[in-house]
């Protein structure tokens, strides 16, 4: 054998060995699912971080599952919502990596920024072991073409608005994108579980991400198992980008802009509630996050309302607060109250009127492996009346301390405590006016009579607007005084989700500041201070120069004086 033949033969053998090594460790012939070592590493991480929700078998039946909405993903079905692949296809490895790394906003699925890239990759490999589809060569995922984002312009936004209406997006997402379309209360996933249309005006809550690229990807590939279709074949890339631009424009900002202060502005004219929100035009908007009440029995782990907007004004005698939040339906019948009981078993069941019939309102419930696939539905079919209605109405409440706090200590934020009660303004939106309670804890909420709170409420285009009005200095409650702060908190009940009593969304304690009628301008004091400092500096410089000059003249002799003579 010549040296050249020997070298060539070794090279062939070496190449064969290199290719054979990884192939021996791959679990099956099909989409690459990592090595045995990678999957084993992923299994350890999964048991530490994921099994509590997704279950040891990956079936979404962890011990935390009864308290989670949407339900954790059932990996055994091979159905994943956020993908770069066509509707119905498996996700790519990178799709799984992205979801693990970013999490799912406003759900129980957190982001994992502290895991290394290799750890996230190993987790993704291990997740593929739960579904045999990942080892099927015929199901190897192939991403769709997702072109780079062009520049958004006013023209593309206007074109997108037109397409948004023509394509039928309004039927689910509503005219203004608030998730209140005519079909919204009737939406169900492939397995007859009720689901909720996304509120397109709050991009920070989008499950697959809020960037234009994320929205375009969702428009192109849809969400597997939900009525959200894929438009990759139905619309051109230009049309999909136009709708993307319009959806991106609905939020108006990249984030919610949460704050911790409500500023009440003085108005000269007496507050007229008949003018509605127009009276609050000069008041700044405070955007506050809503979380579920989970401290007391009757818990709401994931209330449908995620935030509310607050504005406040006051005149010479009264203060008024405007509270607004998005709600896909207005429950104006039935009843509600801060003390209505919630059966313990409902805390385990979660959800709303639709869930009482056996489903999740978030539409993420999974189907058992092997279950029959239902017939494809038309997501744009005309809306039907909700099959199940709630006996509970929508409601909202404001609470402030009964007395102005003398220290930093506030009442317990869930309706106060025995030592520090709260003044609760409660508006059952099936009623014409609000009522007032004194709260000393969830178990001790008593009606207050007479009440000195009035109010009006309206609902339009998926949004509640509720105005509370109360005297600045009532006979028996904490006064609102210009120039001072007072703690304030809010609660919201969604009747469709059977929220009442302790089962509700609420805020933490925030502050309301009653801005004085005349706010001194800072410009005058700033100018006076600057001139004073300048004058002091000039005087100091002049004095130093004079002293230096005097010393110099003393050392050289004053030429104006005759020189001294010595005998």
TrEMBL record:
Residues 330-381 are annotated as: Disordered. It comes from the Bacteria. Keywords: Electron transport, Heme, Iron, Metal-binding, Oxidoreductase, Transport. Its EC number is 1.97.1.9. It holds the Pfam family EB_dh. Gene3D superfamilies: 2.60.40.1190, Cytochrome c-like domain. GO terms for molecular function: electron transfer activity; heme binding; metal ion binding; selenate reductase activity. It is an enzyme of class 1 (oxidoreductase). InterPro entries: Cyt-c552/DMSO_Rdtase_haem-bd (IPR019020), Cyt_c-like_dom (IPR009056), Cyt_c-like_dom_sf (IPR036909), Cytochrome_c_Oxidase_Subunit (IPR050597). Residues 37-131, 155-251 form the Cytochrome c domain. This is Selenate reductase subunit gamma.
């Amino acid at each position: 054998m010549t040296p050249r033949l020997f070298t060539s033969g070794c090279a062939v053998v070496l190449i064969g060995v290199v290719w054979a090594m990884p192939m021996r460790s791959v679990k099956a012939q099909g989409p690459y699912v990592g090595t045995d070592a990678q999957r084993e590493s992923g299994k350890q991480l999964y048991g530490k971080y994921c099994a509590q929700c997704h279950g040891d078998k990956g079936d979404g039946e962890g011990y935390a599952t009864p308290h989670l909405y949407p339900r954790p993903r059932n990996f055994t079905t091979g159905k994943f919502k956020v993908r770069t692949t066509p509707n119905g296809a498996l996700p790519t490895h990178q799709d799984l990596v992205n979801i693990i790394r970013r999490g799912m906003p406003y759900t129980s699925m957190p982001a994992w920024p502290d895991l290394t890239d290799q750890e996230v990759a190993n987790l993704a490999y291990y997740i593929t072991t739960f579904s045999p589809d990942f080892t099927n060569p015929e199901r190897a995922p192939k991403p769709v073409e997702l072109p780079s984002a062009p520049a958004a312009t006013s023209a593309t936004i206007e074109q997108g608005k037109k397409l948004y209406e023509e394509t039928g997006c309004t039927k689910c997402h509503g005219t203004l994108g608030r998730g209140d379309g005519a079909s919204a209360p009737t939406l169900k996933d492939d397995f007859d579980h009720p689901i909720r249309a996304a509120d397109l005006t709050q991009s920070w809550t989008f499950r697959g991400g809020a960037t234009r690229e994320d929205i375009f990807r969702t428009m192109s590939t849809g969400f597997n198992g939900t009525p959200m279709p894929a438009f990759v074949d139905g619309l051109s890339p230009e049309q999909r980008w136009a709708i993307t631009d319009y959806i991106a424009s609905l939020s108006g900002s990249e984030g919610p802009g949460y704050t911790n202060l409500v500023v009440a502005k003085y108005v000269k004219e007496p507050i007229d509630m008949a003018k509605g929100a127009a009276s609050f035009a000069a008041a700044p908007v405070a955007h506050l996050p809503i979380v579920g009440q989970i401290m007391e029995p009757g818990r709401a782990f994931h209330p449908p309302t995620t935030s509310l907007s607050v504005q406040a004004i006051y005149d010479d005698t009264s203060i008024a607060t405007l509270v607004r939040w998005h709600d896909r339906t207005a429950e104006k019948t039935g009843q509600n109250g801060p003390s209505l009981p919630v059966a313990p078993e409902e805390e385990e069941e979660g959800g709303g009127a639709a869930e009482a019939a056996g489903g999740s309102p978030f539409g993420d419930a999974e189907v058992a492996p092997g279950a029959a696939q239902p017939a494809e539905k038309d997501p744009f079919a005309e809306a039907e009346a909700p099959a199940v209605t709630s006996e509970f109405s929508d409601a909202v409440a404001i609470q402030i301390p009964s007395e102005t706090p003398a220290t930093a200590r506030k009442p317990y934020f869930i309706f106060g405590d025995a030592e520090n009660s709260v003044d609760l303004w409660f508006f059952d939106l099936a009623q014409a006016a609000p009522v007032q309670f004194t709260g000393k804890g969830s178990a001790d909420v008593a009606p207050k009579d007479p009440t000195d709170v009035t109010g009006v409420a309206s609902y339009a285009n998926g949004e509640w607007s509720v105005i509370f009005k109360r005297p600045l200095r009532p006979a028996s409650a904490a006064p609102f005084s210009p120039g001072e702060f007072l703690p304030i908190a809010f609660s919201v009940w969604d009747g469709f989700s059977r929220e009442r009593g302790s089962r509700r969304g609420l805020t933490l304690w925030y502050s309301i500041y009653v801005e004085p009628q005349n706010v001194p301008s800072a410009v005058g004091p700033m100018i006076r201070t600057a001139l004073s400092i300048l004058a002091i500096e000039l005087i100091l410089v002049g004095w130093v120069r004079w002293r230096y000059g005097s010393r110099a003249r003393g050392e050289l002799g004053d030429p104006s004086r005759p020189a001294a003579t010595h005998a």
